[in-house]
Specification:
The chain is of the alpha+beta class and 277 residues long. The chain is 33% helix and 18% strand. The chain has a single domain, classed as NADH Oxidase. The strands form 2 sheets. The chain has a 7-stranded antiparallel β-sheet, with helices on both faces. Helix 3 runs antiparallel to helix 6. The two termini are 24 Å apart.
Protein backbone atom coordinates (compact mmCIF):
# COMPACT_ATOMS: atom_id res chain seq x y z
CA UNK A 1 0.00 0.00 0.00
CA UNK A 2 1.23 3.47 -0.86
CA UNK A 3 2.28 5.49 2.17
CA UNK A 4 -0.75 7.68 3.08
CA UNK A 5 1.38 10.79 3.63
CA UNK A 6 3.09 10.34 0.26
CA UNK A 7 -0.27 9.77 -1.41
CA UNK A 8 -1.68 12.92 0.18
CA UNK A 9 1.33 14.96 -1.00
CA UNK A 10 1.05 13.65 -4.56
CA UNK A 11 -2.67 14.44 -4.63
CA UNK A 12 -2.08 17.96 -3.35
CA UNK A 13 0.63 18.57 -5.95
CA UNK A 14 -1.76 17.37 -8.67
CA UNK A 15 -4.51 19.67 -7.37
CA UNK A 16 -2.12 22.62 -7.34
CA UNK A 17 -1.15 21.83 -10.94
CA UNK A 18 -4.82 21.83 -11.95
CA UNK A 19 -5.39 25.17 -10.16
CA UNK A 20 -2.41 26.69 -11.92
CA UNK A 21 -2.70 29.87 -9.87
CA UNK A 22 -0.13 32.63 -10.36
CA UNK A 23 2.99 32.38 -8.21
CA UNK A 24 5.18 35.36 -7.25
CA UNK A 25 8.30 33.66 -8.61
CA UNK A 26 6.74 33.73 -12.08
CA UNK A 27 6.68 37.52 -12.14
CA UNK A 28 8.41 38.68 -15.30
CA UNK A 29 7.99 35.37 -17.15
CA UNK A 30 8.62 35.63 -20.89
CA UNK A 31 7.94 32.84 -23.35
CA UNK A 32 10.26 31.87 -26.15
CA UNK A 33 7.76 33.52 -28.47
CA UNK A 34 8.17 36.76 -26.48
CA UNK A 35 11.93 36.36 -26.79
CA UNK A 36 11.60 35.97 -30.58
CA UNK A 37 13.10 32.49 -30.61
CA UNK A 38 12.38 30.32 -33.68
CA UNK A 39 8.95 28.78 -33.79
CA UNK A 40 8.74 24.97 -33.74
CA UNK A 41 7.19 23.25 -36.79
CA UNK A 42 3.40 23.01 -36.97
CA UNK A 43 3.65 19.23 -37.23
CA UNK A 44 6.28 16.56 -36.88
CA UNK A 45 8.37 15.94 -39.97
CA UNK A 46 7.80 12.73 -41.89
CA UNK A 47 9.40 9.78 -40.15
CA UNK A 48 9.84 7.80 -43.40
CA UNK A 49 10.62 10.57 -45.95
CA UNK A 50 11.95 8.16 -48.57
CA UNK A 51 8.70 6.23 -48.74
CA UNK A 52 5.56 7.49 -50.45
CA UNK A 53 2.84 8.62 -48.08
CA UNK A 54 -0.76 7.43 -48.43
CA UNK A 55 -3.14 10.16 -49.59
CA UNK A 56 -6.38 9.84 -47.65
CA UNK A 57 -9.77 10.32 -49.36
CA UNK A 58 -11.80 13.40 -48.49
CA UNK A 59 -15.15 12.66 -50.16
CA UNK A 60 -16.91 12.60 -46.79
CA UNK A 61 -20.25 13.37 -48.44
CA UNK A 62 -20.19 9.72 -49.58
CA UNK A 63 -20.43 8.57 -45.97
CA UNK A 64 -23.86 7.95 -44.47
CA UNK A 65 -23.29 10.28 -41.54
CA UNK A 66 -25.75 10.88 -38.72
CA UNK A 67 -25.79 14.68 -38.55
CA UNK A 68 -28.39 15.48 -35.90
CA UNK A 69 -26.38 16.99 -33.04
CA UNK A 70 -28.89 16.07 -30.35
CA UNK A 71 -28.97 12.48 -31.59
CA UNK A 72 -25.17 12.33 -31.69
CA UNK A 73 -24.88 13.57 -28.12
CA UNK A 74 -27.46 11.03 -26.97
CA UNK A 75 -25.68 8.20 -28.83
CA UNK A 76 -22.19 9.18 -27.66
CA UNK A 77 -20.93 6.55 -25.23
CA UNK A 78 -17.96 4.28 -24.64
CA UNK A 79 -17.91 0.95 -26.46
CA UNK A 80 -15.59 -1.88 -25.43
CA UNK A 81 -17.02 -4.75 -27.46
CA UNK A 82 -16.17 -4.81 -31.18
CA UNK A 83 -17.28 -7.14 -33.95
CA UNK A 84 -13.88 -7.21 -35.64
CA UNK A 85 -15.17 -6.13 -39.06
CA UNK A 86 -13.11 -3.82 -41.23
CA UNK A 87 -13.35 -0.04 -41.33
CA UNK A 88 -13.28 1.56 -44.75
CA UNK A 89 -10.36 3.84 -45.59
CA UNK A 90 -12.86 6.69 -45.97
CA UNK A 91 -14.20 6.08 -42.47
CA UNK A 92 -10.69 6.16 -41.01
CA UNK A 93 -9.92 9.28 -43.04
CA UNK A 94 -12.97 10.99 -41.55
CA UNK A 95 -11.97 10.03 -37.99
CA UNK A 96 -8.48 11.43 -38.53
CA UNK A 97 -9.83 14.63 -40.05
CA UNK A 98 -12.44 15.03 -37.29
CA UNK A 99 -9.83 14.75 -34.55
CA UNK A 100 -6.84 16.64 -35.99
CA UNK A 101 -7.76 17.76 -39.52
CA UNK A 102 -6.33 21.06 -40.76
CA UNK A 103 -8.91 23.48 -42.13
CA UNK A 104 -6.60 26.44 -42.70
CA UNK A 105 -3.18 27.86 -41.85
CA UNK A 106 -2.88 31.20 -40.12
CA UNK A 107 -0.21 33.43 -41.59
CA UNK A 108 2.62 31.79 -43.50
CA UNK A 109 3.34 29.03 -40.99
CA UNK A 110 2.26 30.54 -37.68
CA UNK A 111 -0.58 28.21 -36.72
CA UNK A 112 -2.94 25.56 -38.02
CA UNK A 113 -6.69 25.97 -37.63
CA UNK A 114 -8.07 22.51 -37.07
CA UNK A 115 -11.34 20.72 -36.43
CA UNK A 116 -10.64 20.89 -32.67
CA UNK A 117 -9.82 23.97 -30.58
CA UNK A 118 -6.38 24.39 -29.00
CA UNK A 119 -4.92 27.05 -26.72
CA UNK A 120 -3.23 29.59 -28.98
CA UNK A 121 -3.82 27.21 -31.91
CA UNK A 122 -0.64 25.38 -30.86
CA UNK A 123 -2.06 21.87 -31.41
CA UNK A 124 0.65 19.98 -29.58
CA UNK A 125 -0.52 16.47 -30.50
CA UNK A 126 0.59 13.98 -33.13
CA UNK A 127 -1.61 11.05 -34.16
CA UNK A 128 -0.31 7.50 -34.50
CA UNK A 129 -2.28 4.36 -35.38
CA UNK A 130 -1.99 0.63 -34.88
CA UNK A 131 -4.09 -0.69 -37.76
CA UNK A 132 -5.49 -4.22 -37.64
CA UNK A 133 -8.43 -4.21 -40.05
CA UNK A 134 -8.88 -1.23 -42.36
CA UNK A 135 -9.69 -1.73 -46.03
CA UNK A 136 -6.84 -0.64 -48.28
CA UNK A 137 -4.21 -0.47 -45.52
CA UNK A 138 -1.79 -3.20 -44.58
CA UNK A 139 -1.75 -3.98 -40.86
CA UNK A 140 0.91 -2.13 -38.90
CA UNK A 141 1.78 1.23 -37.40
CA UNK A 142 1.18 4.60 -39.02
CA UNK A 143 1.78 8.32 -38.47
CA UNK A 144 -0.82 10.88 -39.54
CA UNK A 145 0.42 13.94 -41.45
CA UNK A 146 -2.36 16.36 -40.60
CA UNK A 147 -1.34 19.26 -42.86
CA UNK A 148 -1.26 17.05 -45.95
CA UNK A 149 -4.02 14.69 -44.74
CA UNK A 150 -1.81 11.71 -45.43
CA UNK A 151 -0.64 8.60 -43.62
CA UNK A 152 2.90 7.31 -43.56
CA UNK A 153 3.48 3.62 -42.94
CA UNK A 154 6.01 3.05 -40.17
CA UNK A 155 6.23 -0.73 -40.34
CA UNK A 156 4.58 -3.99 -39.44
CA UNK A 157 3.94 -5.02 -35.84
CA UNK A 158 4.49 -8.59 -34.74
CA UNK A 159 1.54 -10.04 -32.79
CA UNK A 160 -0.48 -6.82 -32.98
CA UNK A 161 -3.17 -7.98 -30.56
CA UNK A 162 -0.63 -8.69 -27.83
CA UNK A 163 1.18 -5.43 -28.60
CA UNK A 164 -2.05 -3.45 -28.23
CA UNK A 165 -3.03 -5.22 -25.02
CA UNK A 166 0.40 -4.70 -23.45
CA UNK A 167 0.50 -1.05 -24.48
CA UNK A 168 -2.88 -0.48 -22.78
CA UNK A 169 -1.94 -2.07 -19.45
CA UNK A 170 -3.40 -5.48 -20.28
CA UNK A 171 -6.82 -4.29 -21.47
CA UNK A 172 -7.23 -7.18 -23.86
CA UNK A 173 -10.71 -6.11 -25.00
CA UNK A 174 -9.07 -3.24 -26.93
CA UNK A 175 -7.08 -5.72 -29.01
CA UNK A 176 -10.25 -6.55 -30.94
CA UNK A 177 -10.48 -3.00 -32.32
CA UNK A 178 -10.02 -2.38 -36.03
CA UNK A 179 -7.61 0.45 -35.27
CA UNK A 180 -6.17 2.04 -32.14
CA UNK A 181 -5.47 5.78 -31.99
CA UNK A 182 -2.40 6.90 -30.02
CA UNK A 183 -1.87 10.64 -29.48
CA UNK A 184 1.57 11.87 -28.52
CA UNK A 185 2.35 15.29 -27.08
CA UNK A 186 5.15 17.46 -28.47
CA UNK A 187 5.58 19.81 -25.48
CA UNK A 188 7.75 22.53 -26.99
CA UNK A 189 5.13 23.25 -29.64
CA UNK A 190 3.03 24.66 -26.78
CA UNK A 191 5.86 25.72 -24.46
CA UNK A 192 7.25 28.03 -27.16
CA UNK A 193 4.23 30.27 -26.61
CA UNK A 194 3.11 29.51 -23.05
CA UNK A 195 6.24 28.22 -21.31
CA UNK A 196 5.47 27.14 -17.73
CA UNK A 197 1.75 27.66 -18.37
CA UNK A 198 1.55 25.29 -21.36
CA UNK A 199 0.83 21.93 -19.81
CA UNK A 200 -2.54 22.30 -18.11
CA UNK A 201 -3.92 23.85 -21.31
CA UNK A 202 -2.62 20.86 -23.28
CA UNK A 203 -4.60 18.49 -21.06
CA UNK A 204 -7.73 20.49 -21.82
CA UNK A 205 -6.91 20.29 -25.52
CA UNK A 206 -6.66 16.51 -25.30
CA UNK A 207 -10.28 16.42 -24.16
CA UNK A 208 -11.36 18.26 -27.31
CA UNK A 209 -9.61 15.64 -29.45
CA UNK A 210 -11.17 12.73 -27.60
CA UNK A 211 -14.69 14.16 -27.73
CA UNK A 212 -14.44 14.75 -31.47
CA UNK A 213 -13.45 11.11 -31.92
CA UNK A 214 -16.50 10.02 -29.92
CA UNK A 215 -18.86 12.23 -31.94
CA UNK A 216 -17.32 11.18 -35.26
CA UNK A 217 -17.67 7.51 -34.27
CA UNK A 218 -21.30 8.12 -33.28
CA UNK A 219 -21.93 9.72 -36.67
CA UNK A 220 -20.49 6.63 -38.40
CA UNK A 221 -22.12 4.05 -36.15
CA UNK A 222 -18.72 2.96 -34.80
CA UNK A 223 -17.55 2.47 -31.24
CA UNK A 224 -14.65 3.92 -29.25
CA UNK A 225 -13.49 4.21 -25.67
CA UNK A 226 -10.91 6.77 -24.55
CA UNK A 227 -8.14 5.19 -22.45
CA UNK A 228 -5.85 6.96 -20.01
CA UNK A 229 -4.45 3.74 -18.53
CA UNK A 230 -1.61 3.00 -20.94
CA UNK A 231 2.03 2.04 -20.59
CA UNK A 232 3.78 5.25 -21.62
CA UNK A 233 7.32 3.93 -22.18
CA UNK A 234 5.92 0.94 -24.08
CA UNK A 235 3.81 3.17 -26.34
CA UNK A 236 6.77 5.49 -26.92
CA UNK A 237 8.93 2.54 -27.94
CA UNK A 238 6.33 1.21 -30.40
CA UNK A 239 6.38 4.49 -32.34
CA UNK A 240 10.06 5.37 -31.79
CA UNK A 241 9.38 8.41 -29.59
CA UNK A 242 12.13 9.74 -27.34
CA UNK A 243 9.82 9.95 -24.30
CA UNK A 244 10.83 13.53 -23.44
CA UNK A 245 10.51 15.89 -26.41
CA UNK A 246 7.62 13.69 -27.56
CA UNK A 247 5.69 11.20 -25.46
CA UNK A 248 2.36 9.39 -25.49
CA UNK A 249 -0.53 11.22 -23.82
CA UNK A 250 -3.85 9.61 -24.81
CA UNK A 251 -5.21 6.50 -26.53
CA UNK A 252 -8.49 5.19 -27.95
CA UNK A 253 -9.42 1.99 -29.81
CA UNK A 254 -12.05 2.18 -32.55
CA UNK A 255 -14.08 -0.69 -33.92
CA UNK A 256 -17.33 -1.81 -35.48
CA UNK A 257 -20.16 -2.49 -33.03
CA UNK A 258 -23.44 -4.36 -32.94
CA UNK A 259 -26.62 -3.87 -30.91
CA UNK A 260 -26.49 -7.63 -30.23
CA UNK A 261 -23.44 -7.06 -28.01
CA UNK A 262 -25.17 -4.82 -25.46
CA UNK A 263 -25.27 -7.64 -22.90
CA UNK A 264 -21.50 -8.01 -23.19
CA UNK A 265 -21.10 -4.23 -22.87
CA UNK A 266 -23.17 -4.17 -19.69
CA UNK A 267 -20.96 -6.91 -18.23
CA UNK A 268 -18.16 -4.34 -17.82
CA UNK A 269 -20.31 -2.69 -15.14
CA UNK A 270 -21.83 -5.80 -13.58
CA UNK A 271 -19.96 -4.92 -10.37
CA UNK A 272 -22.35 -1.99 -9.90
CA UNK A 273 -25.26 -4.36 -9.45
CA UNK A 274 -23.23 -7.01 -7.64
CA UNK A 275 -22.05 -4.52 -5.04
CA UNK A 276 -25.34 -2.61 -4.85
CA UNK A 277 -23.75 0.68 -5.79
Amino acid sequence: MLDPKLQARIIQEARDFMKHSFKPELEGFESDQDLKKPQPPLQKARMRPKEQAILLPRDFEALELQDNLLELLLRRKSARVYTGEALSLLQLSFLLWATQGVKDIRGKKYATLRTVPSGGARHGFETYLLVQNVQGLQPGKYHYLAVEHQLEFLGRVEDASQTISASLEGQSWAAKASVVFYWSFVPYRCEWRYGVFAHRVALIDAGHVGQNLYLACAALGLGTCAIAAFDGPNCDAIFDLDGDEEFMAYTAPVGTISAMDQTAEKAFYQFVEDEGL
